[in-house]
Amino acid sequence: MQNVRQVASEAFCRLGLKPKHTGYEELTDLDAAPWPMNSLQPQWYHTLQVRRIRAQRTRSNSDPLQGKEFTQGLQWQKKGLPFGTASSYLNLEKLGEGSYATIYKGISRINRQLVALKVISMKTEEGVPFTAIREASLLKGLKHANIVLLHDIIQTRETLTFVFEYVHTDLSQYMSQHPGGLHPHNVKLFMFQLLRGLAYIHRQHILHRDLKPQNLLISYLGELKLADFGLARAKSIPSQTYSAEVVTLWYRPPDVLLGATDYSCDLDIWGAGCIFIEMLQGRPAFAGVSDIVEQLQKIWAVLGIPTEDTWPGVSELPNYKPDWFKPCEPQQFGITWDRLGRVPGAEDLATRMLKCCPRDRISAGNALHHDFFSTLPPQLYQLPDARSVFTVPGVTLEPEICDLFISGQRGLHLGRHGKRW
Amino acid sequence: MEGGGSSSSWVPESRTLEEEQENADKAAREMRLHFKITRFIMEAGVKLGMQSVPIATACMVYHKFFRDTSLDAYDPYLVAMSAIYLAGKVEEQHLRTRDIINVSHRYLHPGSETLELDSHFWELRDSIVQCELLMLRLLNFQVSFQHPHKYLLHYLLSLKHWMNRHSWERTPVAAAAWALLRDSYHGTLCLQYKVQHVAIAVLYLALQCYGVEVPAHAAGERPWWQVFSEDLTEQIILDIVSKLIQLYSLDTEIS
């Protein structure tokens, strides 16, 4: 008894006394960054960003300062700063608060890039939150144009900070800025990138498990990046069970709502299908308000109540109680969501993604080759993982309708194509 | 390495031999110690109700940590306890530090009273948490691993369909293969070989132990394991098998 306690606390002392160890130098706190903040007015950023949108760019667009030389004259930037230390980054403004972290916008003093700093405070009783460990360990192995890039990890005594590339908005904000459904061409580009990112992580045997518009970052150019891998995990044996409470209810597939725990890639496909409809239609596909039963009722109202014939094995799921639900017949997607019918291929793709039976859902890789995407340039399928789809000539976002109206009010000629669908 | 061609030859042969002997002794000592500690991880893991994959992850974290660090600097039992805690988080089988401390205490001091919840206890808990952070930093947050388990499961199922039912059911090949795989984590095999190769090698050894012959692939007379892994050679299998056997001789030596 004496022994274990003694060796442990001795070892603990040694931990603290080994400053020369790999990456173990004492780190200053983020707030204590020695550089004055007053040289960085918010105004100044605004101008930078406006300039950047106008510039024609072919490379990754997620950080407005990349490759631009107009900040060279500024004094705050310093050569030779190392990665991994808090003083290499300046904290600009708070962007939001997540489940286990606070997110700040920041700027790197190493290479002038804008970054998102995810600051995780560590409760000493529990150590590093498991979501943080999983997010970092999975993202370390992922390099893809449609996955958010983890630049750096900083440890201080009380906090752990993940440094991500800065992407200026997310799909949730983008949709609320452009209400009433997005331009079908843009939906196609977003959807292609979402499926491209999913196909990539699924190839690496990783599930995202928490797809929702807030977790899909959108850059100025329209690059979509999967973010927030806190709930993601590497999937192992297909028979393995995972903990049940994972996906936000709206994007949760019926099998998980019914209590299944043996989900696989099909979990993310359902979420992606819901997001697809939400982008086109302008409102969530299945917006349940209160509980699982209501959420399921919303789904059955479109897909019909599953039976052993349409979904072998469904009656064995823990929450399967057909008499809880009002009887409903399957509906055509194009009737429930009218905009799906107006874009060639959209209804069919959505139908293939939103199957009640998980095994029937199309895979991300196959979905990419669906006819819905046939109008996109074929070079998109040959891109290396790290290349953005916007590097292919001719691939650009169309202006959203409400943006056109705003410019129309400013006196720009709008023509006869006010509404395209 | 010494710069010139012949300049290194003046070093007396005997001294190099001595040094070599010393290094070999040190390596053998460390191997024995790591064997003991991983046995602790596995037994504590079982008592904590951990499944095989989280236990394997804990061993992997432990071995990786000491591959990059010297044994003199850190207490191996503390590292092992933190490895268990960390593996629980990585594999989503969460464990409480308190349970880990109690189980470890009981393991290291059998028959003694449970620990009081006093300041020493809290110090111990803080040490585990601090050590976890250190390990994450040292391993560069790369703590999600592939394990041979799912491959072994897949291979066992294929082989079962492939072979005639009687020769399969007569012998506990599957159970032996799982046991071999679990025991392989006593050493650093898991860091040195591809997961597919380890899975095949334990299956190979299990089949050999019971003298079960697998019919060769009819057309090209390819051995069965080549069907599972294209880049595997017999030499690799034999290397892994001999390392496994070495682990078992270590076991008899220690206990």
TrEMBL record, chain A:
EC number: 2.7.11.22
Binding residues for ATP: 118
Catalytic reaction equation(s): L-threonyl-[protein] + ATP = O-phospho-L-threonyl-[protein] + ADP + H(+); L-seryl-[protein] + ATP = O-phospho-L-seryl-[protein] + ADP + H(+)
Record GO terms (molecular function): ATP binding; cyclin binding; cyclin-dependent protein serine/threonine kinase activity
SUPFAM superfamilies: Protein kinase-like (PK-like)
Cited function: Serine/threonine-protein kinase involved in the control of the eukaryotic cell cycle, whose activity is controlled by an associated cyclin. Acts as a cell-cycle regulator of Wnt signaling pathway during G2/M phase by mediating the phosphorylation of lrp6, leading to the activation of the Wnt signaling pathway.
Broad enzyme group: transferase
Family listed: Belongs to the protein kinase superfamily. CMGC Ser/Thr protein kinase family. CDC2/CDKX subfamily.
Matches recorded under Pfam families: Pkinase
InterPro entries referenced in this protein's UniProt entry, alphabetically: CDK (IPR050108), Kinase-like_dom_sf (IPR011009), Prot_kinase_dom (IPR000719), Protein_kinase_ATP_BS (IPR017441), Ser/Thr_kinase_AS (IPR008271)
Domain Protein kinase: start-end pairs: 89-373
Quaternary state and interactors: Interacts with ccny; ccny mediates its recruitment to the plasma membrane and promotes phosphorylation of lrp6.
GO cellular component: cytosol; nucleus
Key words, A-Z: ATP-binding, Kinase, Nucleotide-binding, Serine/threonine-protein kinase, Transferase
Native species: Microcaecilia unicolor
Name the UniProt record assigns to this protein: Cyclin-dependent kinase 14
Automatic annotation (TrEMBL), chain B:
GO biological process, alphabetically ordered: regulation of transcription by RNA polymerase II
Keywords assigned: Cyclin
Every Cyclin-like domain range: 39-137, 150-246
Matching Pfam families: Cyclin_N
Record's compositionally biased regions (Basic and acidic residues): 15-25
Superkingdom per UniProt: Eukaryota
Keyword Ligase assigned: no
Function: May be an activating cyclin for the cyclin-associated kinase CDK10.
Protein name per the record: Cyclin-Q
